[in-house]
Write a structure and sequence with these properties.
This protein is an alpha/beta fold and 397 residues long. The chain has two domains: 195 residues, TIM Barrel, CATH 3.20.20.10; 129 residues, Lyase, Ornithine Decarboxylase, Chain A, domain 1 (Beta Barrel), CATH 2.40.37. Helix content is 28%, strand content 20%. Strands 1, 11, 14, 15, 16, 17, 18 and 19 form an eight-stranded mixed sheet that branches. It has a seven-stranded parallel sheet with strand order 3-4-5-6-7-8-9. It has a two-stranded parallel sheet with strand order 2-10. Helix 3 crosses helix 5. It starts with 5 loop residues before the first helix and ends in a 9-residue tail after the last strand. The structure holds pyridoxal-5'-phosphate (PLP). Pyridoxal-5'-phosphate (PLP) binds next to loops.
Length: 397
Amino acid sequence: MKETPTRQAAAEAAGSAEAGPSHANRAGGLLTIDLDAVAANWHLLAGRAAGAECAAVVKADGYGLGAGAVAARLQREGCRQFFVAHLHEGVALRTHLLRDCAVQVLNGPLPGTAAAFEAHGLTPVLNSLEQIAEWRELAGSLGRPLCCTLQVDSGMSRFGLSAADMDRLAAEPALLDGTGPMLLMSHLACADTPEHPMNERQRQAFEQLRRRLPHLPASLAASSGIFLGPAFHYDMVRPGAALYGVNPTPGAPNPMHPVLRLEGRVVQERWIGAGDSVGYGARFTASGPTRVATVAVGYADGYLRAGGEHGFATWADEPSLRLPVIGRISMDSLALDTTPLGTRTLPPGTPVELIGPHRSLDAAAADAGTIGYELLTDLGRRYHRHYLERHDHGDAS
Ligand SMILES: *Cc1c(COP(=O)(O)O)cnc(C)c1O
């Protein structure tokens, strides 16, 4: 992967004060984020949902990869709708985006925060009659209409207006005075399981709820929902995880481009003999001469403790050899069995790949008993972050 000077700018856009080669030399772990792959993924998803607008969900700091850098790049690709979960995420994201981009906040306003949404140019997703009242009262006090998205609960019982709430809004349109709904959205519980009856059940429920407020543009699908077919696309799709390389079609080959590469750096190597143990709890005991490399990535960096038993690393010079993780993952380090490398040693500072071309994000997550989403959002703060951009698409501003 070749890099251009834009990566420095991207690192700064991501809010990383620590960019550049000296920081890379000091960090125990290296996170390489391919913004070209994020852009390609966005175009792939937009193509799958042709006819619908393709938004980008960048909550939880862009699923751990840097909301500012991701959103700034997708804005240059033509994306105009961005979703975060919390108000403060929206406030931070706004500074990276042009005014013509919408920043929607999925959780909506908590009591007393509506004015902050308006002040920062954020669009709330209103999930309850209480949130609608907050927004309506703000519009009334400002004496001008605002805009918002309304979310309905189509069966997930998490966020959104109930059928009874929607009946009430249909019967009393004044409840929406000044709130300016631009979009009606809902969210699918089982979209990653295409054959699950819940998908069609939720789509039908969404159809019913839409009839109470007809003519509003609609949005139902996130990453996996896009792959359920055109009936689920409506006017806007809201992918998150698939942008970052998570497989939106588990059980079938991943159509997305990998975005993330995680490398840890070797601190030291040693030989141990039969009967010697490794790590906390002495969970691994060598049965014969074994070479052990200590790598400066641990669970505090999001390399999950539960993932240790099945984990492995690869070294660039011998990429076909798996170097198994042995013993418990520590907070700041993990141990690899590097015996498979024979006489070749890994000098201090050598990077080994923990997630990347030789071990997919989804596989690493599955080995730790979780999903790619959680692995991404657990990535720690100690890595040197390196943003790759081969193509400079120029700045739209
Ligand atoms: C997180 C989220 C998304 C994005 O979901 P992915 O599965 O990551 O694509 C879309 N809509 C809502 C309401 C969400 O909470």
